[in-house]
């Protein structure tokens, strides 16, 4: 007999020799191997009386098509699903359905569902269904189509939400970069102000040196007449210059320390602000994903309960329909038996035979009911496992997207921090180099002052001043040098290097005189 091919909404006979895909020899070689393993399940002897029942014939070509749907894993709506004769044997529709259910693995449940839909609806072929039943089936298919469309719209909305979140994060990153550029501009302005202050201090030093030079010229011209007044004024000017120089050094050190502390505070505040922003964003993302996971779990649980409820209702309706048919047949038999008893007592034996046949039918129906119940229990566990696998995959996908976004944010934060540290180090190197140059210039100025003092001493020696006055001045200068040496020794004794004073003590050179010396070679009152 010809096979039946279901394609779309049409059911029509088809020739097994023209089955789609039969021209590919390599594919059918693989299909033949699968068919040989499948036929091992089909070595079932069918009793003779079952041959008169409603059966499904499967041809060899149809066997190839059914097996190819298991091997290919790419079943589409236009793939013919053909049932026919397996190895030339006949079998009932429910027996063929049970055999194919055992052959299918757990990963082939979707193909099994497709095979059952192609087979028919509730065990009835589409060719034997009424117009009303077909309309109901079409309505169910339309409801499934609407549900699939709703799911597609839902996932489209989720994609739009993720894109919106990406744009917001991108704009926030631009804001952080603009803030970083603002901080860099502020640092550049502070550096420029520092340069201006250094220039002002240099001008002051030049002005003081110029005044000192003028004062020295005046003292040279009036050295013969006002030696004592010139010496006093020179001492005052030198003291003023030393104090001013010490003040400038102290102020410069304070400015350097203040700038370094200010940079550290800005760095700490910026790091704290960035850390707080990222922690806030991370907490918000965690809350949002937890809520979405909870909603998805609730929806899946509700969907599973609805599907289980629908399956139970279909099975209960089928059982009730079978019981009603049985009650109707039993009542018809009872009425017929009463009529026969009234009309003819000779038909009692034939009625007993009919009663025995009805009992056999009842037992057969009970066995079928138990088989359906066992099949229902067997389908509950795979459904539960499939739901659990679906939840696990969705949870993994959510965690993967979240970890990926977090890793990208951490990488961008590290890059920003490295660039900020590099900029700070570059500014510190430039400032240190400039401070070193300033220190060298101050050392050169100090050498010039010492040379001027030597020249002043030579002038005093050449002017033939009072030896007693020269001796007193030399004694004071030596006492000053001894006092500086004593202070430096005390500082080293207490573990304080002289460089930490913030200024360099000025040592004077005096002509050597024969003076009295105290302990440790220090200057004391002459004997």
UniProtKB/TrEMBL annotation:
Subcellular location: Cell projection, Cilium, Flagellum; Cytoplasm, Cytoskeleton
Keyword line: Cell projection, Cilium, Coiled coil, Cytoplasm, Cytoskeleton, Flagellum, Microtubule
Molecular function GO labels: microtubule binding; small GTPase binding
Segments forming domain Growth arrest-specific protein: 322-406, 407-479
Coiled coil: 124-193, 348-410
Family annotation (Pfam families): GAS (PF13851)
Region (Disordered): 503-527
Biological-process GO terms, alphabetical: cell motility
Listed Polar residues bias regions: 506-516
Gene Ontology CC: one annotated term: microtubule
Record's keyword annotation contains Coiled coil: yes
Record family assignment: Belongs to the DRC4 family.
Name of the protein in question: Dynein regulatory complex subunit 4
Organism: Opisthorchis viverrini
Source organism phylogeny: Eukaryota, Metazoa, Spiralia, Lophotrochozoa, Platyhelminthes
């Amino acid at each position: 007999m010809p096979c039946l091919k279901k394609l779309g909404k049409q059911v029509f006979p088809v020739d097994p020799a023209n089955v789609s895909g039969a021209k590919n020899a390599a594919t059918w070689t693989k299909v033949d191997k699968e068919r040989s393993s499948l036929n091992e399940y089909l070595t079932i002897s069918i009793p003779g009386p079952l041959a008169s029942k409603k059966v499904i014939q499967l041809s060899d070509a149809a066997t190839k098509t059914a097996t190819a749907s298991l091997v290919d894993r790419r079943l589409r709506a236009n793939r013919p699903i053909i049932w026919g004769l397996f190895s030339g044997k006949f079998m009932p529709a429910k027996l063929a359905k049970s055999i194919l259910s055992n052959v299918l693995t757990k990963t082939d449940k979707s193909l099994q569902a497709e095979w059952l839909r192609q087979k028919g609806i509730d065990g009835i072929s589409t060719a034997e269904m009424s117009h009303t039943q077909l309309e109901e089936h079409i309505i169910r298919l339309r409801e499934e189509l609407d549900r699939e469309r709703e799911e597609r719209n839902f996932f489209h909305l989720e994609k739009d939400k993720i894109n919106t979140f990406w744009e917001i994060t991108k704009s926030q990153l631009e804001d952080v970069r603009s803030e970083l550029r603002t901080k860099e501009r502020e640092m550049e302005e502070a550096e420029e102000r520092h340069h201006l202050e250094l220039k002002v201090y240099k001008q002051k030093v030049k002005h003081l040196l110029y005044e000192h030079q003028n004062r020295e010229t005046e003292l040279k011209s009036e050295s013969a007449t006002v030696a004592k007044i010139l010496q006093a004024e020179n001492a005052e000017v030198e003291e003023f210059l030393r104090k001013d120089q010490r003040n400038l050094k102290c102020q410069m050190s304070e400015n350097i320390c203040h700038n370094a502390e200010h940079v550290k505070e800005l760095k700490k505040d910026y790091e704290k602000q960035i850390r707080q922003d990222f922690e806030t964003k991370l907490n918000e993302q965690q809350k949002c994903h937890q809520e979405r996971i909870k909603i998805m779990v609730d929806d899946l649980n509700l969907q599973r309960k609805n599907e289980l409820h629908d399956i139970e209702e279909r099975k209960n309706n089928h059982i009730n329909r079978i019981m009603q048919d049985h009650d109707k047949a039993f009542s018809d038999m009872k009425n017929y038996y009463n009529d026969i008893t009234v009309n003819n007592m000779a038909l009692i034996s034939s009625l007993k035979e009919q009663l025995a046949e009805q009992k056999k039918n009842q037992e057969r129906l009970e066995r079928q009911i138990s088989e359906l119940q066992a099949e229902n229990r067997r389908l509950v566990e795979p459904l539960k496992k499939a739901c659990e696998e679906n939840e696990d995959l969705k949870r993994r996908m959510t965690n993967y997207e979240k970890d990926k976004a977090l890793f990208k944010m951490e990488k961008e934060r590290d890059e920003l921090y490295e660039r900020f540290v590099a900029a700070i180090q570059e500014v510190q190197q430039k400032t240190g180099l400039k401070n070193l140059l300033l220190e060298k210039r101050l050392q050169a100025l100090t050498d010039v002052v010492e040379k001027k003092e030597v020249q002043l001493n030579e002038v005093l020696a050449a002017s033939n001043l009072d030896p007693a006055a020269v001796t007193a001045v030399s004694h004071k200068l030596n006492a000053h040098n001894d006092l500086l040496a004593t202070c430096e020794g005390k500082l080293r004794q207490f573990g304080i290097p002289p460089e930490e004073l913030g200024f360099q003590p000025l040592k004077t050179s005096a002509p050597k005189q024969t003076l009295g010396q105290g302990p440790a070679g220090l200057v004391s009152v002459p004997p």
